[in-house]
Amino acid sequence: MIKVSNTAKDEVLRLMDAQEVKGQAFIRVGVKGGGCSGLTYVMDFDTEMKDGDKVFEDQGIKIVVDKKSYLYLIGTTLEYSGGLNGQGFTFVNPNANRTCGCGESFSI
Predict the structure, then answer these.
(1) What is the pLDDT of residue 40?
(2) Which has more pLDDT, 71 or 108?
(3) pLDDT tens digits, residue range 26-36?
(4) Cα dihedral across residues 17, 20, 21, 27: positive or negative
(5) Is 21 exposed, middle or buried (0-12, 13-18, 19+ CB in 10 A)?
(6) What does 39-106 look like in DSSP terms, one character per residue?
């Protein structure tokens, strides 16, 4: 399961409204090679399901993850920080052995 913090929920809803995301839209979260630690997180709004997708809902936010990425993301929490030291979404991933300083990449 992937969880969503309160601050991440609020920011997702704000972005959906600002970008006029309507209908059956959800957040697609995934993992791809790259970043300073070897793997990087990807996240975007989507409306199309694919074969093998895993679907979760937390705090009213629907999250979809492809089968391969799910193996890296089990138990992850989506966070959002709007502070002066940087703002944006980060992933708190209990499977990561090492993460970069910005929270956008990791290694297993």
Answers:
(1) 85
(2) 71
(3) 999 999 887 66
(4) negative
(5) middle
(6) EEEEEEEE----TT-EEEEETTEEEEE-HHHHHHHTT-EEEEEEETTEEEEEEE-TT-SEE-TTSSEE
